[in-house]
Amino acid sequence: MTRINVTVDGVTYEEDVEPRLLLVHLLRDRLGRTGTPIGCDTSNCGACTVMLEGRSVKSCSVLAVQVDGQDIVTVEGLASGGTDWHPMQRAFHEEHALQCGYCTPGMIMAAIDLLKDDPDPSDEAIRKGLEGNLCRCTGYTNIVRAVRRGAHSMSQDPEAAAAGARSAEEL
User: Fold this and answer.
1) What is the tens place of the pLDDT at every residue in 51-64?
2) Which domain holds residue 153?
């Protein structure tokens, strides 16, 4: 066992983990962050995407021991004070950008990361930016509209938009 310290959604945890434990299993099974689903366990679907040090990663492709001393934000940690939705979460709801909802947390996290590099992406750039996240239900049209709406909302409310990029001290 290896002892790690990790901050998830503003809370610091000290955990003893096996070196082979995946981050997604640490989040779900040990820390109760069930908003991060296990999709494929092979990094193909992107459902388990979280922010690690402010950038999106597929948590099924990261070992828990690799995140020692780092900050993670899950889809649950995006909400301001745990109650107000992040602008991207609201946009996905308003644009009906989900059906079964399984891919939604990963799509939202990947979209927020995409907007860090391109705050006003074209539809083509959105599709390219989300290509590592799969949805089997929606056909992506509403997802693209949601990302566009989320980008607009985030540009209008930079403080709320920054929630996914904040460090643990700021959360």
Assistant:
1) 999 999 999 999 99
2) 87-165
